[in-house]
Specification:
The structure is a homodimer. The first copy, chain A, is an alpha+beta fold. Helix content of chain A is 54%, strand content 10%. Chain A has helices spanning 13-21, 25-37, 40-44, 50-67, 84-94, 99-119, 122-133, 276-285, 289-315, 333-365, 372-403, 405-409, 415-422, 432-444, 456-465, 468-474, 477-487, 506-533, 538-570, 580-598, 600-605, 611-628, 632-637, 657-662; strands at residues 139-142, 158-162, 167-171, 179-182, 191-200, 203-213, 225-229, 242-252, 261-263, 269-271, 317-320, 326-328.
Chain lengths: 668, 668
């Protein structure tokens, strides 16, 4: 089987591009146009000092705001576009361009604007939204502290209610509690949304958000506010990250963002949500769009890298070929093996992201109240997709840069900024490991818990308190096994003779992914419970199971990604006159099999993969790569990354293969 | 077994540091001192423009040259130190500091100086060595071309002998043949060693090296030479990389570096080495020190990253602990799992590098002629260690940066430059994949071939021509199996009952590594031969086996690394009054088991690891990590990375754990 390569389907690039762009094709095309208009920032930044680069990025953001491009998610009455889904599509597409611009847009409109919109009430909307949507009022989102990164509930900054003056007094008690890595803080923000412990009469009510002015209209830092610059960073140097500390800064009572809780003039704390943990995570949950956007940006940054690397490999020859000339890099089996599984995973993640963005739009555009379980499931899916999408970006961009050798090391060819700028995606908007713990918690408790996303010890206790049987019952491994045996006889059986049976059957892939997820999940539940039964410290129990917890979550998200890809391909018409469905089927098979291969040890350890079949999977991956070889350029062209966003000094003049291929000639 | 943690040994940091520094402790300490003197360049570069940074780096290089630090490998009669081993030790240690300085030193003294020394004869030594050792004459090494990266034999630049004027005429025929990524070219080199096709009367004699002046004493580019700047790069922006093209530049006949071949005045080509391939690779082989140095630098850069990340994890708390306060990051099982296997591999690679540097010193300091097989084995080992050492650096620095979250993203905390500067290590001085192909070729042909390192198709034909039995006989898998069954009964047998038997026995580890290597190697030989027997195109045969070829080479190098580590620990006295041997044993076990775990699927596929034992290995790794937890800070301190080279804005003030630990107090 592995030796027979069927004739290559012909990809219809515009049609595939339209499929990828989906519902928001117009928004995406408009964004591409804007990016091309501002493409100069990609080159110019390499010769700019940090201050100049920051100003340039700010200018671009202000110009984009003027086009309405960045305000699509805000209500129309404040100058926005009133369409959450469109705003996500625009943001994702902006990841083709400069990522400092992207992140500054995220800070201003997503984090700062999102907090005002979601946590504030009409008085805050009236006061700030129109100006911030127009980028007349720049703001920042002051949550993270130097000593408390992912553990937001433990923040040190506090806001004490002063009954006499009816003000809150914001204080940074020590350097560990200073706000840190805050985008827009070092130069441009006039206002900060500050997360702080609300204190009334010696009583702490937990973390709440407050609007705190930090600069006057001339940009001078206000009294009681100390701001320092975080200085140069690995990337994103067009964004002015800084540290903020508050020395008893007074703000009016009305500056509490009071959608979920309020303090009366007389200092009485009120909230419709009684449980403080639940209240806190309800507030945080409204900010989920940020994670959806970062994950989507990571996936799209990967598309840029793959577009460059595939074209380079089609323009660059290496070593002698007896037929004359050197071989194209992309004709090497290893080169295909390095790039094509990443290409397949990029497609897979794209479609998974499309499902997620659709769910986000549905939940946040719903006119009826959305139940809490649905919200939690959305948050979990956003967390998991963000983790996988951003790790994927790091891996893909790095592999693509190495696959371009010395040329990949030159800043002009874009991997420099791509890699450096996306690097922090894996740790901001929630460290990826912590996010996967959140996913696992949701799965183990069936999203029923009011416990916070980040409280690991709470999770241990909670799971230990649940009957493990419940988890096991839900994760119906035994039923799956029965089913798959009907579908593919002998699939997990050495003696069946045909190790290739069903290798390209999506039912086989799905069953493998589902079985792993459910087996890992019930295993984690057992281990957590056993540890607690033995009277171990919860911290110790958690520490020992942590990689298992994260593995289970990852298996879950990978299953969601595969399901999204399989469903997308299945929904395409059987014969639309193009080879697009055939091509996507090849990619989907490659995605599934290369993920199985990557974790094949696990399936072998658990008796679900024979060594013969494991080797057959590796052979099949080689065959799929060869089948995809003639389609590679069309498959990256379909991403629609504008040429101006790609490499500028990549091909040696005189090597015209890439251009020829574009014109339909073939060198395969 | 996995649940019992024995009492932690006490590491004697100075003694362990002395063990790591080895023979060249004085050279290493002197280098540390010089680095500290020039530590300012680490901070200052972040605010410098590229031109200024390049000049600063040049100044540091010139100052270092003045101390004799950079000329240790040159003959004493030209102002050098006459000690190859010492020069490698100094270079490796310089990797603790700024890596632009390191690479510029490598370009000037290693590549440029090394080519003059190794490929030239007395007239070249007399003319250039003293000045270049003193850094009065800056030069560059013009080998790589835009269109011909790793395939040096296919270079396009040519040097035509003009019988009338007794000159060579150097010409760049097209843009693909321009010299590219050449360090020192864009600003500082006055002379280039140019690799070009030697042509005499229409006959090509293959690639040779020529000394070509490129700038006058005022720094003006000479007529006929075109130099352009490669511009900004991902990292190493203190090094002036550029492109050079030659328009019929004339140089005297004597500028041919003629140690291995010469041209008489009358245009007769002479060489003691008849076979042109053998001649070419003999020339290249003399330049092996560059690869040894880059590998060592990668390993030492990893030490910097681990020193920073381990200390951060001992100073940073995260999430609630019922006992009060938050947990230290390093108490999390996942955090240990992320950092400690990399720490163990750094130690392993360090000792493997020590063996390699010792062999290099022996071969290049030998007074008798060294046989060709020994030289080839050295080149192969250098290639393999460079590949593994530099990939390890990329992986380790990235993991460490992520393990430090937002703090790791700030340039002040060093991961920025560390990551960006080392990134190209994986593709320069030979792309790592190509280097592993060289290793495989040597193994398959038992270093007997006169074929070049880079000719893949030659390799296919050659191997196909050898009786596969020869390879299989040499790779005596069956004998190994017999032996191990005596050592550890039931080691590959599910039914033995005790899956933990011998898990910590170095004989078990070594046998696993050796078995994999030999099995993969004989498998590759069979596949190559089978392809040729079927009349497939050699290019196609190679393309399909390429990942297998590289896998075999990697398995070989990993075996060498493990052997070096095991031998080092075995040679330590049983009881020297410290816990150092116990600590290194833990690290060595962790190295071996974590490598087995990483590739456990392979062993399972090949029936050498039961699923039960595979799981036991993962458990044991967890236990080893817990045992290493109390030793972690001592184990990174023993690297002896000067404090000035570490992070500057890492710990939140008020978290004193790291300092306390240094003073002997424990928080474990």
């Amino acid at each position: 089987m592995a030796d027979q390569t069927p004739p290559a389907p012909v990809v219809d690039v515009p049609a595939l591009n339209a499929l990828l762009d989906g519902t928001y094709v117009e928004v995406r095309n408009l964004t591409r146009k804007r990016l091309v208009e501002h493409a100069g920032v990609l080159d110019d930044q390499r010769e700019m000092g940090r201050t100049e680069f920051r100003e340039r990025v700010k200018d671009v953001v202000v110009e984009l705001a003027g086009t309405g491009q960045t305000g699509l998610g805000f209500p129309t009455e404040y100058g926005g576009g009133g369409d959450i889904g469109a705003s996500v599509a625009a943001f994702e597409t902006m990841a083709f361009g400069d990522l400092s611009v992207l992140v500054k847009v995220g800070v201003q409109f997503g984090l700062f604007g999102g907090a005002i919109l979601q946590l504030g009430t009409k008085r805050h909307h009236d006061a700030y939204l129109r100006d911030l949507v127009a980028a007349d009022l720049m703001g920042c989102f002051a949550m993270t502290e130097t000593g408390h990164g992912s553990n937001v509930q433990a923040l040190g900054t506090y806001a004490k209610y002063d009954l006499e003056t009816r003000e809150f007094v914001i204080t940074t008690p020590d350097d560990a509690a200073r706000k840190d890595y805050i985008g827009n803080a070092a130069a441009h923000a006039r206002v900060a949304v500050v997360f702080a412990q609300l204190q009334i009469g010696g009583q702490s009510e937990g973390v709440h958000a407050f609007v705190v002015p930090v600069r006057d209209e001339h940009g001078a830092v206000l009294p009681g506010v100390r701001i320092t610059d975080d200085g140069p960073k690995i990337g994103l140097n067009g964004v002015d990250n800084g540290r903020i500390a508050f020395d008893g800064v007074r703000i009016p009572r009305e500056n509490l963002l009071n959608r979920y809780a309020d303090v009366t003039e007389t200092g009485v704390y009120t909230s419709e949500i009684e449980n403080p943990d639940r209240r806190f995570f309800t507030m945080l949950g409204t900010l989920v769009q940020g994670r959806v956007c970062v994950g989507g940006a990571g996936i799209n940054a990967s598309k840029v890298a793959l577009s460059i690397a595939v074209k380079y490999a089609l323009g660059r020859r290496q070593f002698g070929n007896p037929g004359g000339g050197e071989e194209l890099l992309l004709d090497y089996g290893l080169h295909q093996r390095r790039l094509f599984p990443l290409l397949a995973r990029t497609y897979a993640l794209h479609f998974a992201q499309e499902v997620l963005a659709g769910q986000l739009h549905a939940v946040f555009s719903a006119t009826d109240e959305v139940d809490e379980r649905t919200r939690r499931a959305l948050e979990s899916r956003a967390a998991g997709t963000k983790a996988l999408g951003t790790w994927h970006a790091s891996e893909t961009i790095q592999e693509c840069r190495e696959a371009c050798g010395g040329a990949g090391y030159l800043s002009a060819n874009r991997f420099d900024a791509l890699r450096a700028d996306t690097d922090v995606f894996t740790t901001f908007e929630g460290d990826n490991h912590i996010l996967l713990q959140l996913v696992a918690k949701g799965l183990l408790t069936d999203y029923s818990s009011s416990f916070g996303e980040l409280d690991q010890l709470g999770m241990v206790k909670l799971v230990a308190g649940i009957a493990v049987d419940t988890v096991i019952e839900r994760t119906a491994v035994h039923k799956l096994l029965e089913r798959i045996k009907d579908v593919i006889p002998g699939w997990d059986d050495d003696s069946s003779g045909d190790v290739d049976a069903g290798l390209l059957d999506p039912e086989y892939h799905l069953t493998m992914f589902r079985w792993r997820e459910e087996h890992m999940l019930s295993g984690v539940a057992r281990r957590l419970k056993r540890g607690m039964d033995r009277d171990m410290e919860p911290a110790e129990v958690f520490s020992r199971c942590q990689d298992h917890v994260i593995g289970a979550a990852r298996a879950h998200v990978e299953r969601l990604v595969l399901e999204a890809f399989v469903a997308k391909v299945a929904a395409m018409p059987e014969d639309d006159g193009t080879g697009n469905k055939t091509a996507l089927n090849l990619l989907c098979d490659l995605y599934a099999l290369s993920r199985i291969e990557a974790d094949r040890a696990w399936w072998m350890e658990h008796g679900r993969l024979s060594s013969q079949r494991s080797k057959a999977i590796s052979r099949e991956i080689g065959a799929l790569c060869r089948s995809l070889r003639p389609l590679a350029e069309s498959l990256v062209d379909a991403f629609g990354v504008p040429e101006e966003m790609q490499a500028t000094e990549m091909l040696a003049p005189g090597t015209n293969e890439a251009r020829d291929l574009k014109q339909g000639r073939t060198h395969a």
